[in-house]
Amino acid sequence: MSKTDYEMVVGLEVHAELSTDTKIYCSCKNSFGSEVNSNCCEVCTGMPGTLPTLNRKVVDYAIKMGHALHCKINNVCKQDRKNYFYPDLPKAYQISQFDIPLCEHGYVDVILDEECHQKRIGVTRIHIEEDAGKLIHDDSFSGSLVDFNRCGVPLIEIVSEPDLRSPQEAKAYLDTIRSILQYLDISDCKMQEGSIRCDVNVSVRKCGSGEFGTRCEMKNVNSFSGAMRAIEYEANRQIEVLESGGTITQETRRWDDHRGQNFLLRSKEDAQDYRYFPEPDLLTIVVPEERVQQLREEIPELPGEKLLRYVKDFGLPYFDANLLCESGEKRALFEEIAAKGGIDLKAAANWLNGDITRILNEKNKTLAESSLSADKLIGMISMIEQGTISNTAAKTVLEEMFWQDKEPSEIVEERGLGQINDDSALQAIVGDVLQKNEKVVMDYKNGKTNALGFLVGQCMRATKGQGNPAALRELLLKQLG
Amino acid sequence: MQLYEKTAGELHDMLRKKDCSASEAVESLIERIDAVEGKVHAYLTKTPELARETAKKVDERLAAGEELSPLAGIPIAIKDNICTKGVRTTCASKMLENFVPPYSATVVHKLEHAGTPVLGKLNLDEFAMGSSCENSHFQNTANPHDLGRVPGGSSGGSAAALAAGECTLALGSDTGGSIRQPASYCGVVGLKPTYGSVSRYGLVAFASSLDQIGPMGRSVEDVALLYEAIRGMDERDLTSAQREYEPLHGQLDGGVRGMRLGVPEEYFGPGVEDEVKEAVRAQIGELERSGAVIVPVSLPSTGYALSAYYIISSAEASSNLARYDGVKYGYRSENGSSLEELYLNTRSEGFGDEVKRRIMLGTFVLSSGYFDAYYKRAKILQGRIGQEFASAFDACDAILTPTAPDTAFRFGEHTADPLKMYASDICTVTVNIAGLPAVSVPCGKDKNGLPIGMQIIGRKFSEKTILTVAKAVETLRGGYHSLPQIG
Amino acid sequence: MKIDIEKIARLAKLKIEPDKRGMFETQMEQIVAMVENLPEMSERYVGVDPENPMRLREDEVRPSMRRDELLQNAPKVQAGCVVVPRTVE
C-alpha cells in the first residue's frame, strides 16, 4: 500500500488569550512584554489564603466566540481544577472547565479554496481557563527562572471535532478561527507573542474506513504553518509505522519545528491523572438568558460570510476579497464605499489592497490616522472612470489627499492633473513623437507591433501623464496607417 | 478581678467610662501571657509591640472624645492560619515556618479598622488538620483545665489562650469542628458561622467548601460581638454572601420560652461518652423548664457524615496544599538537584504525617477510576444531609447535641490511631457539610472537672437564634465563670 | 481495599520513607475502609447550583504587588525571578 491509500484525521485544540484589561481571576493588568514579575499579586501567584474572582468580561468574550461558532451556550456552568505540578503553575492546579464547558456543540464553515468551496468543521467545545507563567532558560545559568506575569491571563480553548483531513484544511480552519477572534475583537492573536497557540491531534486510517485510528497528540506547535508541517510529519510517521507492520499507540509527542520532527513526550501509561474536581472557591456561573441574547446581537458579520458576499455580490476575485476581509479598517471603508455606490467596486478594492495598503505600511500608520474617506475615494475613482484623470494622476491625487483635508477635485485643479482629451492638442503631440522616433516607426511597419506601446509611452511623457492613453493610441494607429 | 480576666463587653464598658485605658488592658494581658504561657504554649508568635501601638492609638482617640467601635482596645489573638501582613503565618507547619504574608486576611483588616490590638498568633494542628493540636510542628498546647491534656483542635491555641486568660477574644477556623470541639474541651464559647457569612480571604485553605473563620470568647455576648465585627460580604471572596445582617450584641436576652428545640437521637449514640450525654440531656431539661418545647427530630444520614466529610475535605485539601512545592515561598529542601527531587523532598520534609495522610486520601479519592465512587457519592450525601436538616428545621428553631463525644483526652492518647482521632468530629462535621451555623457553649463538667460543651445548630444565617439559646444556657449556669487555676 | 501507596504518593509528590511505608499503608487502608461506608444513593450529582449564582468581577485594573514584596518569601531569587532546578527544554 502507499501513502495515498491512507487518509489523515485531524482535530485541533486552539488556545487563545483574551484581550481583557485584567487577568481572569484577579485585577492585575493583562499585558504582554512587561518587566518580569511586575503584573502579579498574591492571587495570581497562588499565595496561601488567596481566592479567585472571575472577570465578567472573560465570560462575555467566551460566549461571543460561542455564538460565532454556532455553539450551544451553557449559561449555567462551573469551573474545575486541573491538578498537576509545574513551576509555571503556582497553585499547582489550573482553574479550567471540565464536564460543563461554557459553549459546546458548534461548528464553523471554512472556505477551502479560491473557488470558495466550503467545509463544515464541528466545534466540540469552548471553555475558559487561566494561562500559566513562563520559564526562562538561559545558558549562562544552571537553573530555570520563573516569570509569573502570564499566570492568570484569560484563555479560551476551542476544541474541534476530528473533521479535518489535510494540513491545508487545518490551516484554513486555523485562519478562520483567528480571523473570527479578530472580528470579535476579543484576542490579539499574535502568534509570536504566544497569544494564540494550538495542540494537534492526528490519526490515520485506510481510505474508506469508517473507524478512526489511534490518535497522537502533539504539543508545542507554535505557528499555523508549523501546524501544517507537524500534521504532515505525524501522518507520515504513523503511515510508516503501519506500513512496516507496527501499531500506533496513544501518546503525546512534542513538535520541534526547527528539526521538522516530533519526539515522544509521554505514553498513555504515563498519562497525567489531572484529578479534575469542581473549583470550590467559585460558585456556579449563571449568565441570564437576556445577556446571552444581547451578546448574540453584538456579533458582527463574520469573515466567511463577508468574503462570500464580496465575491458573490460585488464580483471581487477571492484573493482581493480575502485581503480586504483581513483588515477591519479597510473592510469598513470598503463597506461604506459599497453602500454609497456609483463606482466600480473592483477598482475600489484594488486601490484599498494596493496603493492605500502600501502607503499605510510605508508610514506605519492606520487608516484612522489618515484623512481618507469613502467620499474622497469615490470622488477620485469617479474621475478616473469619467476620464477626467489618468491612473497615474490619480496616484498623485491619492498621495495628496491621504494626509490632507483636501477634496480630490481641488487637488486636480490646483496641480493641473486633468487629463487632456482634446483631439487637436493630442494630434500635435502625436505628430511630434512620430517625427522624433522614425526608427521606431520603421520597426512598427516591419512587424514589431510592440513598438506601439513605446510610442504611447512617449506621448504620455510629452503630456506629463495627462494625455488620455486610449485616445493617444487611437490617433497613433490612425497615423501609422 | 484583673483586666485580663474581663470579658470584651466588660472591658468595652470600662474603656468608655475611662475606668481603664486600652494600654492598661493590653499590658495586663501581656503580663498574663508572660506568667502562664510557659505552661500553656498557646502562642506561636507574640506581637506585644503591635498590640501596644494599637492600644496607644485607641487611647489617643478616646482622649479626643471619639466614639469607639465595640472592639476598639479589646485584646485579641489570631489562629495562625489567618494571614497577617508583616507577621509570620505558619499554619503550625515546617512548610511555612518563615512565611511572612505581604497581605492580610479580610477579617484582619476589619480588626485593624476597629482598633483591636493583636497579641499574636495561636497554635493549631498543622494546616488545621487534627483535633488535639498535637499535629503542630512546633509545640503541644496544654488544656488550662488540666495541663496533661490536649486543648482540642484544630483551634486549640485559640481555646486554650482564652481559657488561660491569655487573650480576651480569639479568632479560630472551623472545617469539621475545629472551633467548637476545642471550645468544648476548654470550657469557652465558639461559633462556627454560616458558610459564606465571614470572608475566607486570607484564611489558608484546608477545605475551601467547608472552611469558615469564626469568633471565640469566654462569653456568648463576646462571641456575638466579634462575629458582628467580622461578618459581611467581601468582594475578594465570591463565596461570601451578600445580605443584610441583624444586630446581635445586646439582642440575645430573649430566652427560650416558646422556642422549639430539636433533639436528634443520632447524636446520642454509643460513640458518645455517657457523662457527656448526661450533661447535655440535663441541660436540655433545664431549657425545657425555662419554657422551651423539646421536640425529637431525625437526621438519619448522620452516621455517614464522617465518611462524606473526610472524602470532601481531603479531596479539596490535596489540591489546596499542592502549592507548597518549595518554589515560590515556604520551605525548600536542600536535598536533590532535579525539579522532581525538589518537589518530593520539599513536600516530604515540610509536611507532617497527618497532612500527608489527608493529601494521600484526597489524591486517592480524586484519582482516575475512583472519583465517582468516592467524591461524587460524598457530594450526593452532602445534599441529602442538607435536606435532612432542612426538614428538621421545619419542626424546630434550633437543634441541640453534644459538641464532642468526649472531654479533653491526654497527650498521646489518640495519636497512634488516626481513626480514633477522626471520631472526635462525629458531632460537628454535619454542620460544615450542610453549611449551617453552630455554637458550642459550656454545659457542665465531667468527674475530672473537665468542661463539656453543648452544640446548638441553626438554620443558615440564624446566628441570632442559636446565640440566644447559648446565652440562655450560659445564664442558667450562672453566667460567665472565672478562669481555671493553671497548673 | 488495597491501596497503591506508591502511585498515590507519586501523584501527590510525596516521598514515603521505607520505614513509614507500612504504617501509611495500613492507615490508608483503614481510612479508606471507613470512608467507603456510604449508602446506595439514586440521586444524581449535578455540580451546579443555579439558585446560588456567583457575582462576577468588573474588568478594572488595580495596582499589582511590588516585586520585592511578591518575592520576599521566595527561597531563591535571581534577576527578578524565582529560581528552580532547570526544567527540560
Automatic annotation (TrEMBL), chain A:
InterPro entries to which the protein is assigned, alphabetical: Asn/Gln-tRNA_amidoTrfase_suB/E, Asn/Gln-tRNA_Trfase_suB/E_cat, Asn/Gln_amidotransferase, Asn/Gln_tRNA_amidoTrase-B-like, GatB, GatB_C_1, GatB_Yqey_C_2, Gln-tRNA_amidoTrfase_suB_CS
Q: What is this protein called?
A: Aspartyl/glutamyl-tRNA(Asn/Gln) amidotransferase subunit B
**UniProt xrefs under PROSITE patterns:** GATB (PS01234)
NCBIfam families (alphabetical): gatB, PRK05477.1-2, PRK05477.1-4
Please name the gene that encodes this protein.
Answer: gatB
The record's annotation in SUPFAM superfamilies points to: GatB/YqeY motif, Glutamine synthetase/guanido kinase
Q: What does the subunit section of this Swiss-Prot or TrEMBL entry state?
A: Heterotrimer of A, B and C subunits.
Q: Which Gene3D superfamilies match?
A: 1.10.10.410, GatB domain, N-terminal subdomain (1.10.150.380)
Q: Which UniProt keywords apply?
A: ATP-binding, Ligase, Nucleotide-binding, Protein biosynthesis
Write out the function statement from the record: Allows the formation of correctly charged Asn-tRNA(Asn) or Gln-tRNA(Gln) through the transamidation of misacylated Asp-tRNA(Asn) or Glu-tRNA(Gln) in organisms which lack either or both of asparaginyl-tRNA or glutaminyl-tRNA synthetases. The reaction takes place in the presence of glutamine and ATP through an activated phospho-Asp-tRNA(Asn) or phospho-Glu-tRNA(Gln).
The UniProt similarity line reads:
Belongs to the GatB/GatE family. GatB subfamily.
**GO BP, one annotated term:** translation
Molecular function per GO: ATP binding; glutaminyl-tRNA synthase (glutamine-hydrolyzing) activity
EC annotation from Swiss-Prot or TrEMBL: 6.3.5.-
Q: Which residues form the Asn/Gln amidotransferase domain?
A: 332-480
Q: Which Pfam families match?
A: GatB_N, GatB_Yqey
Question: Which chemical reaction does it catalyze?
Answer: L-glutamyl-tRNA(Gln) + L-glutamine + ATP + H2O = L-glutaminyl-tRNA(Gln) + L-glutamate + ADP + phosphate + H(+); L-aspartyl-tRNA(Asn) + L-glutamine + ATP + H2O = L-asparaginyl-tRNA(Asn) + L-glutamate + ADP + phosphate + 2 H(+)
UniProtKB/TrEMBL annotation, chain B:
Q: Which InterPro entries match?
A: Amidase (IPR000120), Amidase_CS (IPR020556), Amidase_dom (IPR023631), AS_sf (IPR036928), GatA (IPR004412)
Gene Ontology CC terms, in alphabetical order? glutamyl-tRNA(Gln) amidotransferase complex
- The residues covered by the Amidase domain are 24-467
Q: Which UniProt keywords apply?
A: ATP-binding, Ligase, Nucleotide-binding, Protein biosynthesis
The UniProt entry's GO biological process terms, in alphabetical order, are: translation
Q: Which residues form the active site?
A: K79 (charge relay system), S154 (charge relay system), S178 (acyl-ester intermediate)
Q: What does this protein do?
A: Allows the formation of correctly charged Gln-tRNA(Gln) through the transamidation of misacylated Glu-tRNA(Gln) in organisms which lack glutaminyl-tRNA synthetase. The reaction takes place in the presence of glutamine and ATP through an activated gamma-phospho-Glu-tRNA(Gln).
- Annotated protein name in UniProt: Glutamyl-tRNA(Gln) amidotransferase subunit A
Phylogenetic classification of the source organism: Bacteria, Bacillati, Bacillota, Clostridia, Eubacteriales
UniProtKB/TrEMBL annotation, chain C:
User: Which GO BP terms, alphabetically?
Assistant: regulation of translational fidelity; translation
Quote the EC number. Answer: 6.3.5.-
Kindly indicate whether the keyword Nucleotide-binding belongs to this entry.
Answer: yes
Supply the enzyme class, top level: ligase
Its Gene Ontology molecular function terms?
ATP binding; glutaminyl-tRNA synthase (glutamine-hydrolyzing) activity
Please list the reactions this protein catalyses. Answer: L-glutamyl-tRNA(Gln) + L-glutamine + ATP + H2O = L-glutaminyl-tRNA(Gln) + L-glutamate + ADP + phosphate + H(+); L-aspartyl-tRNA(Asn) + L-glutamine + ATP + H2O = L-asparaginyl-tRNA(Asn) + L-glutamate + ADP + phosphate + 2 H(+)
Q: Which UniProt keywords apply?
A: ATP-binding, Ligase, Nucleotide-binding, Protein biosynthesis
**Protein family according to the UniProt entry:** Belongs to the GatC family.
Q: Sum up the protein's function in the record's words.
A: Allows the formation of correctly charged Asn-tRNA(Asn) or Gln-tRNA(Gln) through the transamidation of misacylated Asp-tRNA(Asn) or Glu-tRNA(Gln) in organisms which lack either or both of asparaginyl-tRNA or glutaminyl-tRNA synthetases. The reaction takes place in the presence of glutamine and ATP through an activated phospho-Asp-tRNA(Asn) or phospho-Glu-tRNA(Gln).
Database matches in HAMAP family: GatC
**Subunit structure, briefly?**
Heterotrimer of A, B and C subunits.
Q: What is the protein's name according to its record?
A: Aspartyl/glutamyl-tRNA(Asn/Gln) amidotransferase subunit C
Source species: Harryflintia acetispora
